[in-house]
Every structure is written in structure tokens, then in C-alpha cells.
Design the sequence.
């Protein structure tokens, strides 16, 4: 695979943070100034930062990587990209990484990338932010080709044949970061990924299913260092996602493009809500197990317990709790009985949509009512039957 590199380095020079003390100042004032200066100078600093654009003939074209060096534990950055004439801004950090270098974005139509980088120490103290820009017009093609030659000719301590897919095999929740969370990562489930040991994967988000392959690839960094990552390619051999092999938590893999998405292993009993999501059924619904929030109203199957009229027929929902119930119904086709379940789908707006779903005793989806959150519930529409309305039969006290 032919690769080229375009590198923009922001070399940072140190400056004096304090001038000499005033004439005739007291010893205590000098001591205070010295103490203050030492405190400031002990904050984390950035010595060098660079944005590297690496081109590959596979995937999205260019991958943009931010490399930072200095006296720091990790960095956080506000990234701004210009793509197809439009600007967008997002955040990226190496807080959950074991290195201060990571892919921040990718695409073939990006014309500008800038980053405002803030260094942090192990105690989360912030240092002075630094701003750098990437401009491909400032670097000649010859320099780019030379950089590629150096990187590809370097040796690596980890051979590609020594890395297996054992670490990524299994069942995973595909999550996107909640944009409202500014510090701790809060993930919103978007789909379910199953990776087999033979290198195949299946992704299901409730609306569609995608199949593909997983293989081990490398990111090439400064001085010829190579870092392995799991690369996911769909059935059209198009790059989907990638995540580094060595991360801080073996059951969480943060994905490129600023780490705004991740794979969380579905162990069935993990804390943090992992066990609240399962493989979607054949109709694209996930089983809902979220516990009720204390002191807050929540949607439950018991909200629709009672009798409902639709045309000349009656639907009765009974024996309900929060998550399930039973039903009896009739229509032109006959009489039906079965179970009621509270389930959800994953929506495009990063939200979960709850449903009251009715399944007959043989497991077939009979009726599906979208939960609107209205309390009390007096009208529901069957999305399985062109929105046929069911109206609650009110009982006299």
C-alpha cells in the first residue's frame, strides 16, 4: 500500500513568565514571586505538536493524526476541520490512551485542519493551550514522498503475524459519545457488533444489518514507529471503523475520529449499563431493562393496562409490570393471545425510542405501539397496521 505523509510542525519556544523583581523589594516579596514562578513553571507544557496527513489508497483517503510531545500526561484539543466548504468542530483527547498521538479525523474532501491543544498532568492540572494549523500547500510533494520512504523502511518490534483477533472477538455495544457530557465519557448505544474469531463481523442497529471483515493494520508514527489497530471493512471492502489493539481497558475500544465512538464489550453482567442492551431481535427491537429512575416518571407497560377499542373489536392488556404483560385480542382473522414487552430501537438522533410490542404465543410480532411519554395514555396507534388507532375504554368508578 503506497502511503505519503504531509507534516506541519509547530515548534514552541519557551518564554520568561516573570520579569525581575522591583528595586528595593522585600525578601518576602521576592520569595513569594519565586514560589509563584515555580508553581506556574511546574504546569504541563507542550514542546512540539504536529498534524500529520497520511494518504492511503484504501478507506477515506487522508487520515489526520495529532502528535504531541512535552512534559504532559495527556492532552485535550478542540479540533476544527473544513470539509466541502463547511466547518465543523469537535473535541478529542488522549486521556484514555497510553500515548499522546491519535487519529483525529479522516476524509478525502478535507481542506483545512486546526487544533487548540491543552496539556494536562496526572492530577488533571491544565497547562497553556497551543494552537496549530495544517496547510498542505506549505509542503512540497517531494518532502511528503521522502517522509513515507523513511517510515515504511523502519522496523517494528511487533510483527503483524504475532497479533491475533482474540482481543476483539465477541459481542460489543457500539456507542456514540453524548455531546452534552464534557468530562466523563457517556455513551449512547447505536448498534450491536458481533466479531467472530475467523475475522468476520456483523453490525446491527435495528434498521439494517451489515457484514464485513476485521483485520490487523498499522498506523505509522514519527521515527518509523508502527502501532497496530483492528480495521473493520464492510462487505464492499470499504473502511468502516478502526481501534488500536492496545488500550487501557480490555473491554472498551475507543474508535478514531476523536474517540467520539467506542465498542463496549457486552459481558451480560457488566456495570454501567452494558447488560441493559442485547442483540436486537428479527424485527430490530432491543429488550429494555433500564431500571426506573428514583423520583422520576418513566414509561412502563403498566401504562397501557386495560381495555382498548379498535373498530368493532376489543384489545385487553393485563397482568402488567414495568417491562411486560399479557394480552387478548380479536379481529377479522380470529382471536389472539400472547405477551406484551417494553422494547426500544436506536434512532438517528442519538436517542432511544421505546415501544409497547405485542407478540403472539408463537413469537410473531402482532402489534407495535410507539411510546410517546404521554401520561395518562388514552390513545395508541399500531405501527404494524398502518397506524390503526386504539382508544382506551374508560371504566366507571
Sequence:
Amino acid at each position: 500500500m503506497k502511503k505519503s505523509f504531509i507534516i506541519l510542525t509547530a515548534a514552541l519556544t519557551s518564554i520568561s513568565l516573570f520579569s525581575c523583581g522591583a528595586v528595593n523589594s522585600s525578601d518576602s516579596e521576592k520569595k513569594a514571586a519565586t514560589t509563584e514562578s515555580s508553581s506556574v513553571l511546574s504546569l504541563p507544557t507542550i514542546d512540539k505538536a504536529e498534524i500529520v496527513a497520511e494518504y492511503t489508497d484504501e478507506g477515506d483517503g487522508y487520515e489526520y493524526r495529532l502528535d504531541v510531545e512535552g512534559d504532559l500526561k495527556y492532552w485535550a484539543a478542540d479540533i476544527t476541520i473544513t470539509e466541502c466548504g463547511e466547518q465543523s468542530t469537535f473535541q478529542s483527547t488522549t486521556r484514555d490512551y497510553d500515548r499522546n498521538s491519535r487519529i483525529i479525523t479522516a476524509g478525502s474532501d478535507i481542506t483545512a485542519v486546526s487544533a487548540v491543544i491543552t496539556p494536562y498532568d496526572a492530577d488533571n492540572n491544565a497547562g497553556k493551550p497551543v494552537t496549530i494549523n495544517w496547510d498542505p500547500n506549505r509542503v512540497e510533494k517531494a518532502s511528503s514522498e521522502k517522509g513515507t520512504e523513511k517510515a515504511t523502511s523502519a522496523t517494528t518490534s511487533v510483527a503483524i503475524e504475532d497479533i491475533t483477533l482474540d482481543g476483539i472477538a465477541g459481542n460489543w455495544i457500539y456507542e456514540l459519545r453524548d455531546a452534552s457530557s464534557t468530562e466523563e465519557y457517556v455513551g449512547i448505544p447505536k448498534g450491536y457488533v458481533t466479531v467472530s474469531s475467523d475475522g468476520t463481523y456483523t453490525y446491527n442497529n435495528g434498521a439494517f444489518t451489515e457484514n464485513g471483515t476485521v483485520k490487523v493494520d498499522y498506523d505509522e508514527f514519527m521515527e518509523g514507529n508502527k502501532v497496530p489497530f483492528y480495521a473493520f471493512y464492510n462487505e464492499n471492502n470499504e473502511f468502516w471503523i478502526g481501534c488500536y489493539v492496545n488500550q487501557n481497558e480490555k473491554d472498551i475500544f475507543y474508535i478514531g475520529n476523536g474517540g467520539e465512538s467506542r465498542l463496549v464489550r457486552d459481558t451480560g453482567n457488566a456495570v454501567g449499563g452494558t447488560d441493559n442492551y442485547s442483540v436486537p431481535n428479527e424485527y430490530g427491537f432491543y429488550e429494555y431493562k433500564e431500571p426506573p429512575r428514583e423520583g422520576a416518571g418513566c414509561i412502563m407497560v403498566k401504562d397501557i393496562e386495560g381495555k382498548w377499542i379498535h373498530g368493532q373489536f376489543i384489545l385487553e392488556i393485563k397482568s402488567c409490570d414495568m417491562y411486560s404483560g399479557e394480552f387478548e385480542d380479536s379481529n377479522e382473522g380470529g382471536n389472539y393471545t400472547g405477551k406484551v414487552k417494553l422494547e426500544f430501537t436506536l434512532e438517528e438522533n442519538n436517542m432511544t425510542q421505546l415501544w409497547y410490542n405485542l407478540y403472539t404465543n408463537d413469537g410473531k410480532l402482532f402489534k407495535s405501539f410507539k411510546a410517546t411519554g404521554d401520561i395518562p395514555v388514552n390513545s395508541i396507534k399500531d405501527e404494524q397496521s398502518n397506524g390503526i388507532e386504539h382508544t382506551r375504554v374508560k371504566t366507571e368508578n
